[in-house]
Design brief:
alpha+beta; Aminopeptidase; five-stranded mixed sheet; 5 strands; 29% helix; globular; acyltransferase
């Protein structure tokens, strides 16, 4: 049986936390930092890696890093929102999703 190595890395341009299996990017959780908030708006895992808990792992790591960075999370992404409901412990840094936050992430980026 082959052991695999799974790591989560924070990347920039675009801002996201990538999850890698044996060094290959297989998914990510994308965000936008605005002031003291980290708006988490999209999480995606490659289909062939689905069902392995990788989305949970990348989101959990992103939330822990958000806390370590002294920021508050705004869970626009449905998966992040679901993760927060199922895994209490981040209520102290979670802000309500506002229309302004949705508008910011929907705005085309150059």
């Amino acid at each position: 049986m082959n052991a695999t190595t799974t790591t989560v890395i924070r990347e920039q341009a675009p801002d996201r936390f990538e999850i890698r299996v044996d060094g290959v990017v297989v998914g990510f959780s994308q965000f936008m930092d605005v002031g003291s908030q980290r708006i988490m708006f999209h999480t995606e895992i490659d289909k062939q890696f689905g069902g392995q808990g990788l989305a949970t792992k990348v989101v959990q790591e992103a939330l822990e890093q958000t806390r370590a960075d002294g920021l508050r999370v705004v869970p626009v992404c449905p998966f992040v929102k679901k993760h927060l409901r199922k895994n209490p412990g981040f209520e102290d840094i979670t802000d309500r999703v506002t229309q302004e936050a949705i508008d910011l992430v929907m705005k085309p980026r150059s």
